[in-house]
Amino acid sequence: MSAATIILRTELLRMARGRWLLPLWLAFLALCAYAAWEGAAWSTQRGAVLAAIQAEESEVHQMRRSQIVNELTPENKSRYGGAIYATAMSFRATLAQGELPVLTVGQAEGYPMAAKIFPFVASNTIFDEYMAGMENPAVLAAGRFDLAFVLVWLLPLLVMAGSVDLWSFERERGMEPWLLAQPVSLARYLLAKVAARALLLVGPPVLMLVALLQFTGAPGPAALQAAVLSTLYGLFWLGFAALVNLYARNTAQAALGCVAGWLALVVLLPALALGAADVFAPPSSPAERTNALRAMAMQARAEVRGQADAASRPERVPAPNIPDSLRKRAVEVERGEQLIRAAVQPYRTQDERRLRWMDLLRAGSPAIAFQDALERLAGADAGRALRFQDQAHAFLLDVRRLTQRYLEQDRLLTAADYDSGMPRFVHREAPPAERLGALAFDAGVIALFVMALLAAGARRLRRQAPLTE
Amino acid sequence: MLQTQALSKTFGAHRALDGLDLDIAPGEIFCMLGANGAGKTTTIKLLLGFLAPTSGKALVDGIDVQADPVGARRRLLYLPEQVALYGELSGLENLRYFAGLAGVPDCTPQRLRGWLAQAGVPAAAIDRRASGYSKGMRQKVAIALAIARAARGLLLDEPTSGLDPAASAEFHRLLLGQRDAGAAVLMATHDLFRAREVATTIGLMRDGRLLRSFKAQELSARELEQLYLDEMAGTAGV
Q1: To which H or E segment does residue B79 belong?
Q2: Which of A125, A336, B103, B129 is deepest in the core (most CB within 10 A)?
């Protein structure tokens, strides 16, 4: 049996006999279970909201069809008007749940997940109706106790609680010279000890995570990816504790070093990264944008009204199926949209720039990269939410083009139109390669940090004799 | 077996060891006597490869310690003043661990018990957790390791400091057993009388230098004490 195997086996035995391992596992399991339950409840709630919005769309279509059947004459003429004009079409766009919605309540919760779309709605207002209905914004702002929180914030504490005395125990008890006098190098001791702790401090939490994801109905490749990322993240913290142990003279110093590292990498660096993003790529102001758009909409209405007054035409005889007032409204909407597009562009550019910065800054700490990866796996990342917004806007344009055809042909909606199928919004996910690329980037960042720890550890071992001279 | 050739070590401006030449053959016990800071522990650390020499060489069974510290340690057993064991493990498990690290084959429970018994560990204590062991008992586990490993070189750094007289006597009895088995022993100690009893050769050290070495039986205990005091005061031969 090799020396490494003997150390590994003995460490496992020592840890198993320690009184702290089981309580640590149980505490972590309890926290994970509570977070998973919270996440599952939130996911169910969100799923119900989205289902209700989709049901609302079907119900409106059904209602419109009934109205058409009742109101349209056999000659396809309107008895009363209104509901059977194409301008009355109403649709809903919803952002489907991600692959592992129970994992996190993420950045995307700050973005709309549903839109109400009808032809004459201004594109900047399609998300307004559902923004308030999804969740208490105060709760979202404060953050939820979700699995991502447990993994990003608490897994490091679990790992370091069990490895804070990885070598300082031996140093503090005067065992170091006695151990190093055996024909085994310090590097081998440390690697075997790290391996033992990886088995008992990283392995079980990852298994707990996988089991909870299975239990909450989120199995599949995404769960496996979450497990791989969590393992990598756990190994980073184990490596960090090992490095601290190479410098610390005793366990108290090692504990201080571990806590300081945790504070720096999990709490301070993400906050600093956000601060840096605010300085170099500040977010656009929603209030400023709303005001600008409101002004644009007013300007559009005034312009169109002025043009209409200048070129007022007598009413057509016989009157068209669709009143000309709706065509005027369409022109007004189109003009407003041109102005809105121009007004929105600078804000959009500003937001995209910020997103690029945020993407870059996630390389600043393994905690940021891990959180980002978890949000991507949960489908709660900002990129996905913004893509949904783009797709909802594109769908609005499709609806407008369809309406325009009805206006040009002066054609009323018929039951057959509904029977043959109205357009439906379908959210398209990012291509798998793009999604996997982003996850690989996050995993690469954590792996790089692990390698940096290994390099720092190797340097420390090379530069210092095993015992302090 | 244990050799140093003009071995020197300086820490900044302080010369901790100054051109030490030693050659300890198998079956020989060399006791280093000297006040604190004389260079005894530094010599042991250099032979273990814990420190790099400023100049000179430390050799174990012909192996240059600097070039192959692990190879040298394979032939050595080191006994510090405080032998620390893993408290969560029993004496037997501790011995199995350290013997395994040293590459001792066939560490069966029966053989481990035999080695521990040879070292004087009571049968009732063998399976008890080492957290309850006395210092003497821990030293015995270390001696059991020396027996198990059939170590060819023993480096002892004040091993009996803090032991009661009975435990100290038993330790020295075990040490003589190791000597008779052919081990070369280098022991740093402050215990002049015990040194005279067990040593083959005694070396007096002061300020990093070996002042003189002589056969232990050449002097009586009283003469040794006087010589030691004179050398430490720098008045020997005056």
Answers
A1: strand B76-79
A2: A336
Number of H helices, E strands in chain A: 19, 2
Q: Rounded to 5 degrees, what are φ and ψ at A198? A: -60, -40
Q: Residue A11: inside a domain, yes or no?
A: yes
| Contact between B101 and A173 using a beta-carbon 8 Å cutoff | no
Q: Report pLDDT digits (tens) over B177-211.
A: 888 888 899 999 888 888 888 899 999 998 889 88
Please report residues of A whose CB lies closer than 8 A to that of B52: 465
pTM > 0.90: yes or no: no
- Specify if A211 maps to a domain: yes
- B218 token code pair: 């050449």
Q: How far is A185 from chain B (nearest CA, A)?
A: 7
Answer whether the bond into residue A318 is a cis peptide, omega within 30°. Answer: yes
Give yes or no for residue A112 having a pLDDT over 60: yes
> Cβ of A183 and B100 within 8 Å?
no
* Residue from A7, A8, A9, A10 to probe the interface with B (highest B Cβ count within 10 Å): A10
Nearest Cα residue to B73 out of B95, B96, B45, B52: B45
- How far apart (Å, rounded) are the C-alpha atoms in residues A467 and A170? 12
CB nearest to A183's CB, from B52, B70, B86: B70
A181: chain B residues, CB-CB within 8 Å: 48, 73, 76-78, 155
Does the beta-carbon distance from A183 to B84 stay under 8 Å?
A: no
Give the nearest chain B residue to A1 (CA atoms).
Answer: B100
* Residue range A257-273, pLDDT digits in tens: 999 999 999 999 989 98
How far apart are alpha carbons B35 and B222 in whole angstroms? Answer: 18
Residue among B77, B82, B103 whose CB faces A174 most closely: B82
Amino acid residing at A430: A
- Band of residue A468 on the pLDDT scale cut at 50, 70, 90: very low
Q: Say if residues B84 and A174 touch (Cβ distance below 8 Å).
A: yes
User: Does any CB of chain B come closer than 8 Å to the CB of residue A184?
Assistant: yes
Residue A78 domain-assigned (yes or no): no
CB-based contact A178 B97, cutoff 8 Å: no
| Tally of domains within chain A | 1
In angstroms, the CA A16 to CA A22 distance is 8
| pLDDT tens column, B147-182 | 888 888 999 998 887 777 877 888 888 888 888 888
Distance (Å) of CA B182 to CA A119, A290, B64, B80, B178: 100, 92, 21, 21, 7
Looking at chain A, the whole-number percentage of residues with pLDDT higher than 70 is 91
Q: Do B101 and A1 touch (CB under 8 A)?
A: no
